[in-house]
Specification:
alpha/beta, seven-stranded mixed sheet, 7 helices
Length: 197
């Protein structure tokens, strides 16, 4: 049986090697859940990384501070990583390239394990990374590759890909669901019956 880890402090468990999507109307509820997910990770000696615009990161920082986390100390110590400049995740700083982004995730995971963390919790606003740059139409290619890397029972990597429903057409929504074995809805993780393994 796959080892499970605490997803949030409220007690929900997920298997190690979890790849999930959070499709939402507004980012507020997702940020609250991400903050609780990161809080549980920090308490289990996991590194937590968030790739998103500054306003979203600010919300997570605030929530963690309210929960008693010394965010500045966690950032300087490396247990919290916030990436708000997407250019470092784009090939040549300008192109969304799935291979390049997957390599960046693999490198972050490798560094995380090398320095002694028990795992990596990662969340990314994927459309924000790819918006209005060459290659932005390659998101599903990235998600298929990410599922192969992340969705591995026993590999201590948990990833949440965020998507805003208002920015998706129904076909995109279905394709995103097909690429994620788990979905995050209302702060709870569910097995996704639309997943095409």
């Amino acid at each position: 049986m796959t080892k499970e880890i605490l997803f949030t402090e409220e007690g929900q468990m997920v298997g190690i090697g979890a790849h999930m999507c959070a499709m939402h109307e507004g980012v507020g509820g997702v940020l609250d859940t991400l903050s609780r997910m990161f809080l549980a990770g920090l308490r289990q000696n996991e590194r937590c990384a968030y790739i998103a615009p500054e306003e979203s990161v600010a919300g997570v920082r605030r929530s963690l501070e309210e929960a008693g986390v010394d965010v500045a100390d966690a950032e300087s110590g490396g247990s919290l990583v916030f990436i708000t400049e997407r250019e470092q995740l784009l090939k040549d700083g300008a192109e969304f390239d799935p291979d390049y982004l997957i390599e960046a995730i693999k490198n972050l995971f490798g560094q995380t394990m090398e320095v002694g963390y028990t795992g990596l919790r990662l969340s990314a606003d994927v459309p924000w990374i790819s918006r209005d740059v060459p290659g932005e139409d390659r998101i599903m290619e990235f998600e298929a590759m990410a599922d192969e890397v992340i969705n591995n029972p026993g590999v201590p990597l948990l990833a949440v890909c965020q998507y805003r429903l208002s920015e998706l057409d129904p076909e995109d929504s279905l394709e995103i669901l097909e690429r994620h074995p788990l979905t995050l809805v209302g702060g709870q993780v569910y097995v996704n019956d639309k997943y095409a393994s």
